[in-house]
Amino acid sequence: MTAPEKTRLITHLRHIDLAVPDLRTQTDFFTNTWGLKEETTDSGLSFLAAEGSPEQYVVRLREAADKRIDLISFGAANRADVDTLAARMASAGVQLVHEPTDLQTPGGGYGFRFFDNEGRTVEVSADVAVREHRKIEEGESIPVRLSHVVINSSEPEKTVAFYEQHFGFALSDTLMHPRMGNMMYFLRTNAWHHSLAVARGPHASLHHASFELRGIDEYMRGTGRALRAGVEKIWGPGRHMAGNNTFSYFLDPHGNTVEYTTELDLVDEDTWHPSLYDFSNPEVSDQWGTANAMNEFVAQKSFNDPDKGLFVAPPV
């Protein structure tokens, strides 16, 4: 195990918070089509849980004039680790949004927020109450959990270095292209192949948020339900080589890419060695060969709109 992994204090991905101009339409999509459950609402806020997840919520939606990532949230084991991380980051010159404090969001807890190197707001928390959740049954095509978040970066190497240095994230694999160089870095904070990935893009933005389903059958049923509902599919269904997970990418009502996936690899962190995959090889993008070809249209959709929330903390 490498030195960063020994000192890693981040345990897992908790939730992604998005601001959107039309809260009602976005909430309707995530609940009635995508399969999340609205657990709590507040003035201009909606907290959405995955039925199979112990997290209080996996998506928070906030109504705002500008579409943006409000924040990405990660868990820590305890309050002491939260304090240690906050102190480390402050001493390294990372700009904190606020010091560790008791949280007022559902489930409470203790956490702090900061800006990453490109200005995204990130939260680290511990002692959040566990949500009463359940085992997802055979045939239920609803998300079990938030699998991973992928962000676009105009300086992906610097962004990867930031999360490795300050959080102890480890590189699992890299996607490259013969003409364009390294294009995506898969980072893990536990045995899951990746909880965060960083893609090379023209600007900082959300590339996609991915939701784990129970298994192949449930993943295909969910994909079919979204198609029947008229949701725009941009890529899939297929199976990636890096991470070995399935993929079906759709656009939400505000043009964010969301993914259904399943069977993401669990790696042995003591023995894992990162691979460099050339995605000009069609089997790297899709082992099955069932997805539409990765092309400029798919890539452009995944670039998303430039994030208007950089170095501006969300109001809540």
Automatic annotation (TrEMBL):
Keywords: Dioxygenase, Oxidoreductase
GO molecular function terms noted in the UniProt entry: dioxygenase activity
Domain VOC: 12-127, 145-263
PANTHER family tied to this protein: GLYOXALASE FAMILY PROTEIN, METALLOTHIOL TRANSFERASE FOSB
SUPFAM superfamilies with a match to the protein in the record: Glyoxalase/Bleomycin resistance protein/Dihydroxybiphenyl dioxygenase
UniProt-listed InterPro entries: Glyas_Bleomycin-R_OHBP_Dase, Glyas_Fos-R_dOase_dom, GlyoxalaseI/FosfomycinResist, VOC_core
Entry protein name: Catechol-2,3-dioxygenase
Pfam family, one: Glyoxalase
